[in-house]
Design a protein that fits this description.
Blueprint: H1 2-29, H2 46-66, H3 70-76, H4 85-103, E1 110-113, H5 117-141, H6 143-146, H7 149-157, H8 178-188, E2 192-194, H9 195-222, H10 226-232, H11 245-253
Antiparallel strand pairs: 1-2
């Protein structure tokens, strides 16, 4: 029963994440299908709204970063089963986003507006590509591992958990952090950049750059081969014309 309960907890956490992820597309893209979007009608004064938005982003950043650190994971697994650790992270990340979506305050004002039809199509395509790159990156990393379902499934079957090897193929052969590159595209590719959207994009970009440094420190500790990978592959923007890590390995073997 305990194994089944952990498994159902993982499935429920994933389901909440999935709905939250779909809502995030509508929130950032100002789609009419969602009730609250990043550029809705302002309901507070500018400075009050700014304070609320910064606080909401701060809650998400602290939760998302702190719970990802190895020290926090070790502490958390003293309280909950280890198999449920990743699902708990996914659940709390989703709750932090739901809090942000629910109480986000539009600021009004327009930073830029692209009216040209072709320009809007290009930015819309970049926005869609960003979300597709996000999903594709999770598949390369093992989508179910990243979101906790693999861990709870293995414990349900009574099988030992084994960490996955470092991913260096696909988009990860071009850049070390395609998932973060996808996020940045999602946040910045918009034909209408409002003050609230700019605040969201700037603060999340700062967070991404800090998160990369923290994540790479953890990866170096967990995967000694990451040092070689980091030297060969750029961080966020691909350098075309250079051999991928797989091609370089093949050349060395030859």
């Amino acid at each position: 029963m305990k194994r089944l309960a952990i498994f159902l907890y993982g499935v429920a956490s994933y389901a909440i994440f999935f709905v939250t992820f779909l809502y995030a597309i509508g929130f950032v893209g100002n789609l009419p299908q969602v009730p609250n979007t990043i550029d809705g009608t302002p309901g507070l004064g500018f400075w009050s709204a700014l304070g609320v938005d910064v606080l909401l982003l701060g809650v998400f950043v602290v939760q998302h970063s702190a719970m990802a650190r190895p020290a926090f994971k070790r502490w958390l697994t003293l309280i909950i089963p280890q198999a449920a650790e990743r699902s708990t992270y996914v659940l709390f990340s989703s709750l932090a986003l739901i809090l942000l979506f629910s109480f986000w305050q539009p600021l009004g004002g327009l930073i830029w507006q692209v009216d040209n039809h072709s320009g809007r199509l290009v930015l819309g395509a970049a926005f869609g590509f960003g979300w597709a790159l996000l999903i594709y990156s999770t598949v390369l990393l093992n989508h179910f591992e990243l979101l906790g379902l693999r861990q709870v499934s293995l414990q349900l079957l009574g099988k030992p958990y084994e960490p996955l090897p470092l991913q260096e193929s696909g988009a990860y052969a071009l850049v070390r952090h395609p998932l973060y590159a996808g996020w940045l595209l999602c946040f910045w590719a918009t034909p209408s950049m409002s003050a609230a959207h700019l605040l969201f994009a700037v603060l999340t970009t700062v967070y991404v750059l800090i998160a990369i440094r923290l994540e790479e420190r953890d990866l170096l500790a967990a995967h000694p081969e990451y040092r070689r990978y980091r030297q060969q592959v750029p961080k966020l923007l691909p350098r075309f014309g250079r051999k991928s890590p797989q091609d370089e390995k093949a050349s060395e073997l030859a």
